[in-house]
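pls read this stuff:
=====
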Amino acid sequence: MHAIAVAASAEQLGVWAYLVVFVLMVLAFAGIPAIGALVVGWASVLASQGKLNIGLVLVVAMVGAEIGGMLGYRIGARWGRRLLERP
């Protein structure tokens, strides 16, 4: 019963909050100056208030960080030399 109550209360902000966490984590780990820890902290506060599910927040943040890290690596491998040598 408790898991059902948590899942029902996590729908207050909807998918958009999880999408924001995902996109900001991708940007933070791809090299765009965004603070990933702040994003996770913000989402954790919302989860503590019952507006988000903490388990889902952590999974979305982890997947976003991994995808952002791989994206940053690919950008560096392809255009890194040109970006560093640019005046």
The chain has a mean pLDDT of 85. Residues 2-85 form one domain.
